[in-house]
Amino acid sequence: MANTGILSGYRTNPPGRMSPAPRNLRSYPRFRPELKPAPFLPMSRKEMEKLGWDSCDIILVTGDAYIDHPSFGMALVGRLLESQGFRVGIISQPDWHSAEPFRALGKPNLYFGVTAGNMDSMINRYTADRKPRSEDAYTPNGEPNRRPDRTLTVYAQRAREAFPGVPIIIGSIEASLRRIAHYDYWSDTVRRSVLMDSKADILLFGNAERALLELSHRLGAGESVKGMRDLRGTAFMAPRGWRPADDWSEIDSTRVDTPGKVEPHPDPYEMKEKEPQACGTDGSAASVAPIKILTREERLAQQKEIRAKSVVRLPSFETVKEDPVAYAHASRVFHLESNPGNARAMVQAHGERDVWLNPPPLPLAMDEMDHVYDLPYARAPHPAYGNAKIPAWDMIRFSVNIMRGCFGGCTFCSITEHEGRIIQSRSEPSILREIELIRDKTKGFTGTISDLGGPTANMYRLACKDKKIEESCRRLSCVYPTICSNLNTDHGKLIQLYRKARAIPGVKKILVSSGLRYDLAVRSPEYVKELVTHHVGGLLKIAPEHSEEGPLSKMMKPGMGSYYKFKELFDKYSKEAGKEQYLIPYFIAAHPGTTDEDMLHLALWLKQNDFRLDQVQTFLPTPMAMATTMYHTRKNPLRKIARESETVETPRLAKIRRFHKALLRYHDPANWEALREGLKRMGRSDLIGNGPQHLVPRSDAVAALARRPRREETPPLKTVAKKFGQKKLRPGAAIQRKRPG
């Protein structure tokens, strides 16, 4: 029977107070103690009847196909809620042209949970050139157009229309990236918070398990969603000037954005006291009040108490929409207030109302991560899809996610805004159990785990050496401009995990396919050796992103020195293992701060190193990312923002963006005409010709003749074999090719 009264042992927080310590996910009493796990969460009334349900407590609406696997948000959230005793139904990719499909499972007892899916819907549907994508990887058979633009808003409105009065809770990465006023690349405007457009009751951002469970149990206990204003990781609308309690203070954001670099952070162990200043005019101490010397613990507690009851007011939506400098300032402050250990609440006016952002969610402990990933997932697409191929499922079905978060802070990446910079890792036994489940339950398994990783493969179990320093830190990256001295970079736990994973009976190969942070990897040559010897399938992805300091400084990425160090180790250990293996480098074209000269230098570097890239990426401005701020405002939020502060030149014209992308594929004949035109415009016609020093041939006709080798120019086959090797490389791979000329 459902627990409809006040939950046993449950207490809500005092007005305006966030939970001082996180509540363990498994500590809640089950809402329906008798509820058993379903084979799949139901997607139809017929499935509900088989389970003996007359209604759902919670209905999750998602823009993705329902795949019951922890890599898919709706499955992870659904199974977690089910484990708490809630009946959870799934409405997947409904026809949004009417409200009727949103009534398919009836009226939920508690709320609709609405998500756009694993990706922001606009990124999912459109390329960096704003062209519709031909495939949706999260849809059966890759069929496009199965979700609307701005899916979160459309679904929330339809759910409200289907059952007025039922609370609407929105979440997912689309909610995280659009929780305040944000630049929208596809409309080329600053849009207001998705809370306003969706008319949702509350927004959950980041990995929202904590807020989701507390909210669900409180709704189940009869509390109104309108009164839930004390949950970390949530955003909601409030009357202009609303405060949780009378003792709260408001801070203008201009007081937060202090001059200077972000890197230094306060030392929580600092014992130095400020010199007392006499208040008298005659130099006597008679008018000086007694000074109480506080201990370090008392001082830290006092500072924490003040911050806990402070809210930072960002410039309003109306202001940032019209003023790029105000937008850049708001973006900088937003990111400075992102550490759960010291972040304050933030508020932003939208007309006569405020969007209120509570501090970010507290990270999950290891046993909580294990609980989330050990739930009884079917580890397969819902049977309703039959034999349809779902590209995203094919991509990850033999992979294992070992951690969350990334402390790299790359400005073009959305991980910071969603998962945060603190690494949340699973335990070794939990990961090994999942590998065994893949072996035993996943159809088609042939012995190879395709990936053992996460957002960044080699950040597993890495963290700040001191919890107090971590909680006080306000750096935007732990590894830029240099690796922080307080960061533990020991890869020993990961090496141990690799060894135990590949020792599991029935497992032939464990690959690492996730992106690798190579500036961290070189700190542990033992790790590089382990990786290269056992976990590279011939090709390894890494992401230098660029070769030039200008764009790299705007990306917060390391220079090429780290790349060369890693490549040296990679080649050395590949040779020792007797393996022919290659690095696959990824580069970004047209990133903010990139000039034509920067891209040309990168193209020449690629040619010099004989790289021929099959796939390249053009910068796509995602909502809330710091690089997107640079793209929109031409200001650098990595530094203090002012009208006269640094201007970031950014390629915005489609023609220039295409030219930058073409430079990365200088070897493709389809790009030669655009490259010749661009090089002439730059005054670099010296790079047009048919010699080895040239980047592109003079013309297609002349080039065709020039490519005919003269007999005397063709080196002897033995010389070629000796210099470049005899083995052929895998076709289509973006690698450094060994070939003559």
Strand content: 5-15%
Which fold name fills CATH's third level, the topology of the domain at 398-667 and 709-724?
pyruvate-formate lyase- activating enzyme
The helix-and-strand class reads alpha/beta
Q: Whole-Å distance between the termini?
A: 76 Å
Question: What are the defining features of this structure?
Answer:
Rossmann fold, 741 residues, three-stranded parallel β-sheet, disordered N terminus, alpha/beta
Task: Describe the protein in words.
- The chain is of the alpha/beta class and 741 residues long.
- The strands form 7 sheets. It has a 10-stranded mixed β-sheet, sandwiched between helices. A 3-stranded parallel β-sheet has the order 21-22-23.
- Strand 22, helix 21 (596-608) and strand 23 (617-618) form a beta-alpha-beta unit.
- The termini are far apart.
- The model is unreliable at 1-12, 258-266, 271-288 and 709-741 (pLDDT under 50).
